[in-house]
């Protein structure tokens, strides 16, 4: 890296070498513990009221409804005795509320409409609901706040499972509905993979547009729910994107101030695909103002209103691409080297922080010492799998090994295809009656 660029980044607090890995691991563990106890914490540790204890019944159908982003997916899932899923009657629809505002009644009736072609296939529904919701002990979810530009404000504050079931019952088809979020679904999808392999513990991790982690916690450690059977376990949605003790650079602080929710989800804004492009633009524009780029290049980049993560990643991977926003910029080779170095610094830091997140959660579970029963880590998300700069995925795995192998912890990363659908199916089939 050019010495001037390196000095610029360090002066502003950006660089993976500035991260104290052991301190971050301890801080993450402390925030998890505080969240479980009900104390003030940047990690709320939301109970999912689901476990990994129950066996997934073979050859039993369950209807799956997956609501996330701009699409709604519906299908029927069965597992064979080895845990292999078979998805049938699969359809994709626009998520209600993405094209026009809807009342609550219209929203839930639209969900019911999408289920009617498969409603006779099963008496249970696994509902993966990828929006911020408080899960209730009976397996429902109360929507706290919409995200992803959904226009159905009357739904906020309502129990989505109960409301949907009211519409199904009115049509003569009441069903047993289990609501869970996508990260808990990722964890449970790993359990389906583990039916043919002995695992000692499970972690679900998403690193895409946003980020989150789910883990299994002993009930005795969940101090904020004192009535639980202390011998049992429960899946917990960590909401890890909110971790608030990772050191932020001046760029992070400046970029955060431009987002819709300043001060919230600080960690997510440092590592996930929905934010890395904007953060990168903040760095590049600061560099342009300080004269680290040629005048023509700097002027062009200062005029950009936004930068997508994919475009930054594509350029850092190949600074001579003939497409994308950088192709229209008059770049010298020194500009290319500087932009690439600054972008890769962000990806290297994001990789280390992602590994810290995973390692802290794995270590908190207290399992994985037995090589015959490693921790199963199911990873989902486009940022993890598609980011090419700085050998991103390999770098995460390298850091993770460096943190866990000296501690004698064994783990196995898996990638279950259609994890939200598979995990929702597991939840729908295994939640106790």
Quick synopsis:
The protein is of the alpha/beta class and 433 residues long. It contains 14 helices and 13 strands. A hairpin with a 5-residue loop joins strand 6 and strand 7.
Question: If you had to describe this structure to a student in words, what would you say it looks like?
Answer:
This protein has 433 residues and is an alpha/beta fold. It has 2 domains: 1-47 and 195-417, Hexokinase, domain 1 (3-Layer(aba) Sandwich), CATH 3.40.367.20; 62-180, 2-Layer Sandwich (Nucleotidyltransferase, domain 5), CATH 3.30.420.40. It contains 14 helices and 13 strands. It has helices at 3-11, 21-37, 104-115, 160-170, 182-193, 250-256, 268-271, 273-289, 295-302, 309-317, 333-365, 382-386, 392-404, 419-430, and strands at residues 46-47, 62-68, 71-79, 85-94, 124-129, 132-135, 141-145, 176-180, 201-207, 211-218, 233-237, 375-380, 411-414. Helix 8 (273-289) packs across helix 10. It is globular. The protein starts with a helix and ends with a helix.
Helix content: 25-40%
Question: So how many helices?
Answer: 14
- Assign the structural class, choosing from mainly alpha, mainly beta, alpha/beta, alpha+beta, or little secondary structure: alpha/beta
> How is the main sheet built?
6 strands, mixed
Quickly give the CATH architecture of the largest domain.
3-Layer(aba) Sandwich
Q: Write out the strand line-up for the largest beta sheet, numbering strands in chain order.
A: 1-11-10-9-12-13
In whole angstroms, the N-to-C terminal distance is: 59 Å
Number of strands: 13
Q: List unreliable stretches of 5+ residues.
A: none
In total, the number of domains comes to: 2
Mean pLDDT: 95
Strand content is: 15-25%
Q: What integer value in Å does the Rg equal?
A: 23 Å
Shape: globular
What order do the helices and strands follow?
A: HHEEEEHEEEHEHEEEHHHHHHEHHEH
Regarding CATH, which class of the largest domain? Alpha Beta
The third-level CATH topology of the largest domain is Hexokinase, domain 1
